[in-house]
Structures are given as structure tokens and as C-alpha cells.
Design goal:
The complex is a heterodimer of chains A (about 270) and B (about 220). Chain A is an alpha/beta fold and about 270 residues long. Chain B is mainly α and about 220 residues long. Chain B is flat. Chain B has a single domain, classed as MetI-like fold. The longest helix of chain B is centred in the last third of the chain and has 32 residues. The chains are: A alpha/beta (about 270), B mainly alpha (about 220). Chains A and B meet through helix 4, strand 9 and helix 8 of A and helix 3 and helix 7 of B.
Chain lengths: ~270, ~220
């Protein structure tokens, strides 16, 4: 009786093991990129982006996203013949979404930094930007050196590159972290902070919208390669996305989309 | 696959005690302030004087039905545009307190209504003055009735205080977000923060349960 039971148990265990191993082997043979095969099976590609970050990405009143980054993501989805599914995250959420497999990629005004590269992967850049300190036109601040004083508040979006720029260039000022770029801008607008650190292109678009109320302090404080982010460890998925960016830039489509959303020519890459 | 590694965020632990202190201070001050604010609201609600009743009901319904996050935005960004510049700390404290006062007023009202009117009548017949009836007869019994719901209320305020991190108040939730974004070890920082929140809530519950036991000791 016990022998028979043991035999059945062994048989079951063997069966399960073969099924599991066989399953792995099939996946490994059929598709080089696990992410691509998932995306194709699902029929949708999950793209993470940030809200409140015009003209890169913002949410229309009807709940759908729009912007430069959104157009790029939609073009990639169209190229793969799958439907884009946009996932809205905050700045640090871009990394978490990729790390936890909640998103297949990001198009989210996302700067490729060496620190981030240790956690996730990036394609080549599709636009290169700098960073500025922005103040109200009426502000007494004229130079970034004047910002670097205790009691001066600098607004930055949490988890973005602006945090590091603030610590490096104005360590004596008080840094106030917000969850989105628009929150930080609102804080500047309502006088809750004295200055804000912004992506130079975004800066220009805020200046264009808000007219004469704001100005930039002289000086550019960063070199930022804006790239598509993807989970680390899937070399074939990287190869596909990187080829997409190379062709997006090379074909002039990148420059066309940029002009559509920013209103002027793409700065040299 | 995400590689879980708690050791990767050990270097951020030295900032934990301070952020826990901020969370506890925010919670403690908000609980005290909201309780003080809740007394006149509950009294007005029970006063039977129509304009006062309407005002108290309006306060409770208004502040109970606005998320703390929205209150925080109104106090921090909205008031600033009107020229009143509250710091992130004060805006967060005000948002928590005005919200908590609405809940606390309802808890107090329930506590008062649990006291049989015979208690007041008996006290009056013994010749006690109105304030003596309130302080020596009614309040001790109200306190005993409201302790259990008050414990839940305190835990609600403690958890609600995490919203302050949205505008960068350096509390435990801010530590979690900052540690995650600095080290890219989000799961680890979420887990550490969640564990500490659980411990803090259990601590608050234990303290209030001890008070409850003492308050009931006389009833045995």
C-alpha cells in the first residue's frame, strides 16, 4: 500500500517537473525576448509615463494622455501592431514600474543617468536637454549664487534629476520636494517657493504659456539624455527599442513630433 | 525578476528616527488640536439652537467629505495664491486637524448621547452646578464611552499623516519615497515603512487600551 502510494507520489512529482521544465524550454526556444512575446500574446504594450508634465506628457480632461512622449509611445505600439496601454506613474514610479514588470517600457521625459542604469536599461536618447533655475519675474534673485542661501526655497519634483542638481549647485538653499512638475510649478506660482529647477525645454514651454510672469536665471545646470526606459536584463527587447529610437531620430520623425509639441526645432542630438 | 535586498537601504536607516518623530509629532499635535476643535462643534451640534446646529452639521459634513489630500492642496497652494503662505508643516497639520475634528466631533456626540439624561437630573437634584455636572459627572463617563472609537480615530490620523509627504514634509512616508527614489530599492523601503507604520499603530492602540483598562477599573 505504502509502496504504491510512494510510486504514485514519485510519478506525480516527475510529471510536474517535466511540465514545468518543458514550459520553460518552450518559452526560451520560441521567443528570444520574453517581454516581446508577452506583449504580442497580450496584444497591448504597457507604457509608463508621468502626468502633469506638458508638453512631454499630460492628461486631457477626458482622461487620455497627450504630448510629445505619448506620440512617440503610440508610434512604437503601432510599429509592433499592438495597442498602447498607458500607465500613469510619478517620477520615482518610472523605475518601480519597470523593476516590478508593471510596465514594458517608459516614455516619460526620463533622463538616462548612470545611477538609474544600474537598476534599469535605457535606449539611446531622442532628445537632449539641460536644466534651469526659474524664478518669478518680480523676484529679487538674479543669479544662481543668490539662490544658494538658507531661507531660499527651491522646488523640485521628487525622484527627478532636479534633486541632485539642487544639492550640487545650491546646497545651502532649502529644497522642497513635490510629486509632479506641475505641483512644483504651482508652488513657484503661488509664492510657496522662491525658485524651481526645471528641464530647459519644459521651462521654455512654461515661459511661453505664462508670458512675462517668470524668467530663468542665467546658466545651464545639467546635460540630460532623455531616453526610453525598459527593464534590465532583456537584451533583445533593448535591441528592438533602441532600433526604434535610432530610426525615429534618423528619419526626421522625432524632429517633426518635437516641433509639433514644442513649437520650435529639435535641439541637436 | 525583482531581487529583494534589504541590506541595500541600510545606509538610509540613520534618517529613520527623525522621520518617525515627525510622523508622531504631526499625529500627536493633530489629535490634540482636533479634539479641542471638536468639543465646541459637538456641543453646538447638540445645543438645539438651530443656527448652531446647522453650522456644526455643515462643518462635519464638509470636512468629513473632503479628502485630506485635497485639503492639503487648498491650504498649501490655494491659500498661498490668496496671499496666505503656510509652510508645508503647518498646511499638513491644518489639513489633518480640520479633517480629524469632523470625525472627533461625531465621536464626542455619540459619547454624550450615551449618557442617560437621568445622570444629569440626579446630579442637578443633588444641587451640583452646571459646570460641576459637566466636569465631574458627564465628562468622565463620556471619556469612558469614547475611548475605543477614539483609538481607531488616532490610528486614522496617524495613517492620514502620510499624505504630508506629498508636499515634502519629512515624515516616515517621505523617508520611504526619498529612500526609494535615491536607492531604486522601492520594495524594500515600502516594506520597512509599512512595518514601522504597523508598529506605530499597534503602539497607539496598546497605549489607549491601557488607558481604557484603567478607566474601566472603577467599574468592576
Amino acid at each position: 500500500m505504502t509502496d504504491r502510494r510512494r510510486f504514485i507520489t514519485a510519478g506525480l512529482a516527475f510529471g510536474v517537473a517535466t511540465a514545468v521544465l518543458g514550459g520553460f524550454a518552450r518559452v526560451a526556444l520560441a521567443q528570444a525576448s520574453p517581454i516581446l512575446s508577452e506583449v504580442q500574446k497580450r496584444g497591448t504594450i504597457r507604457i509608463a509615463t508621468v502626468a502633469g508634465n506638458p508638453p512631454y506628457s499630460s492628461i486631457k480632461p477626458d482622461g487620455t494622455p497627450e504630448g510629445y512622449d505619448i506620440d512617440i509611445g503610440n508610434e512604437f505600439a503601432a510599429a509592433l501592431k499592438v495597442k498602447p496601454e498607458w500607465i500613469i506613474v510619478d517620477s520615482p514610479g518610472r523605475i518601480t514600474a519597470l523593476q516590478t514588470g508593471k510596465a514594458d517600457m517608459t516614455v516619460a521625459n526620463f533622463t538616462n543617468t548612470l545611477e538609474r542604469s544600474t537598476a534599469i536599461a535605457f535606449t539611446r536618447p531622442y532628445v537632449i536637454v539641460g536644466s534651469n533655475y526659474m524664478v518669478k519675474t518680480s523676484s529679487p534673485l538674479q543669479k544662481v549664487e543668490q539662490v544658494n542661501k538658507p531661507g531660499i526655497k527651491v522646488g523640485v519634483p521628487r525622484g527627478g534629476t532636479a534633486e541632485g542638481i539642487c544639492q550640487a549647485n545650491t546646497p545651502n538653499a532649502e529644497m522642497v520636494r513635490f510629486n509632479t512638475v506641475t505641483d512644483a510649478f504651482l508652488a513657484l506660482k503661488s509664492g510657496q517657493v522662491d525658485a524651481q529647477i526645471l528641464d530647459s525645454l519644459q521651462d521654455a514651454s512654461f515661459l511661453a504659456q505664462e508670458g512675462a510672469s517668470f524668467r530663468n536665471l542665467p546658466g545651464n545646470y545639467s546635460y540630460e539624455e532623455i531616453a526610453i526606459g525598459l527593464p534590465a536584463g532583456d537584451a533583445d527587447w533593448f535591441r528592438i527599442l533602441d532600433a526604434f529610437v535610432r530610426q525615429l531620430v534618423g528619419s526626421g520623425e522625432d524632429a517633426r513630433l518635437f516641433k509639433k509639441w514644442f513649437g520650435y526645432d529639435l535641439p541637436p542630438l | 525578476m525583482y531581487q529583494f535586498n534589504l541590506r541595500a537601504i541600510l545606509v538610509y536607516f540613520d534618517r529613520l528616527p527623525q522621520s518617525i518623530a515627525v510622523t508622531l509629532a504631526l499625529t500627536g499635535i493633530a489629535v490634540v488640536a482636533s479634539t479641542l476643535l471638536a468639543f465646541p462643534i459637538a456641543k453646538a451640534r447638540m445645543s438645539g439652537i438651530p443656527p448652531l446646529v446647522v453650522l456644526a452639521r455643515a462643518y462635519v459634513e464638509l470636512f468629513r467629505n473632503i479628502p485630506i489630500l485635497v485639503l492639503l492642496y487648498v491650504y498649501y497652494f490655494g491659500l498661498a495664491q490668496a496671499g496666505l503662505h503656510l509652510s508645508t508643516w503647518w498646511a499638513a497639520l491644518l489639513a489633518l486637524s480640520t479633517n480629524a475634528a469632523a470625525y472627533c466631533a461625531e465621536i464626542l456626540r455619540a459619547g454624550y448621547s450615551a449618557i442617560p439624561s437621568g445622570q444629569r437630573e440626579a446630579a442637578r437634584s443633588l444641587g451640583l452646578r452646571a459646570w460641576q455636572i459637566e466636569v465631574f459627572v458627564v465628562l468622565p463617563q463620556v471619556a469612558r464611552v469614547i475611548i475605543p472609537p477614539f483609538a481607531n480615530h488616532c490610528i486614522g490620523v496617524l495613517l492620514g499623516s502620510s499624505i504630508a509627504a506629498v508636499v515634502g514634509v519629512a515624515d516616515l512616508a517621505d523617508w520611504m519615497l526619498a529612500t526609494g527614489s535615491d536607492s531604486f530599492r522601492y520594495m524594500e523601503s515600502f516594506l520597512v515603512a509599512a512595518t514601522i507604520y504597523i508598529v506605530l499603530c499597534q503602539g497607539v492602540a496598546a497605549v489607549i487600551a491601557a488607558i481604557d483598562r484603567r478607566a474601566r477599573a472603577g467599574l468592576r
